[in-house]
Amino acid sequence: MIFTPQEMNDFVKNHLGPKLKADGHDAKILGYDQNRDELKNWVEVMYKDQEAAQYFAGTAVHWYASTFDFFPKALQLAHDAAPDKYLIQTEACVDSEIPKWQDDKWYWTKEATDWGWDWASEEQKHLHPKYAPVNRYARDIIGCLNNWVDGWIDWNMVLDKQGGPNWFKNWCVAPVIVDIETDEVYFTPLYFVMSHFSKFIRPGAVRIGLETSDNDLQVTAAQNPDGSIAVVVFNEGTTTKSFTAEHNGKSKSITIAAQAIQTLVIQN
Fold first, then answer.
1. Residue 186: phi, psi to the nearest 5?
2. What is the pLDDT of residues 137-168, one digit of tens each?
3. CATH 2.60.40.1180 in the chain, residues?
4. Across the strands, what pairs with 176?
């Protein structure tokens, strides 16, 4: 099923929204649910019509439009269009790849390709170079959190060694891979990248501002309900970096290795 923005609005306004409301359901409707490069065209329609907008809890986006660009301007525009609505990254994965079993190095190496490597139009090819899965995950999650995204969801948390099951045979990589013949579990580096966010940025946390003088480091910060602050730092470069973390008049010298991600927790 393919909607135009207006067709989606009409369906939600005249059918889905009123029906859910009449039946007493508390389900949340997220509009769009596709790649960020076309986000502008959809949110402008979604939120222009207030009769339809009342039924949208927010907007859902995916990451497949590029292997490196997280489209910050599009995310900012979506937030500005409806600051009181959710903006949720609902699908991302290393697509069009069979998982590499027990090979941590591969996940840090720029050898992965996505659907666009083969199928993107010539004018879009530049958005789909080879990439390192760890880099893409860390960069995208940080970029999303720093641009108003409320949540980031992986498409698959667990898959088998083939990258399935998948009826379409669109094999993918997941943070956790299982050998169904031996019951062996492989926690890939992607699992540990995600844990830097999900383990330390807790439900109910609020993303907070920060200032950084080193553009080579990608950083985000959030304050948890208990008052603690989690700061996630990603060094995609090939050299060790040193920096000073400052908060409320206190400072701490920190070193982060090349090609590394680490989390600082500042207790209340």
1. -115, 110
2. 999 999 999 999 999 999 999 999 999 999 99
3. 205-268
4. 158, 187
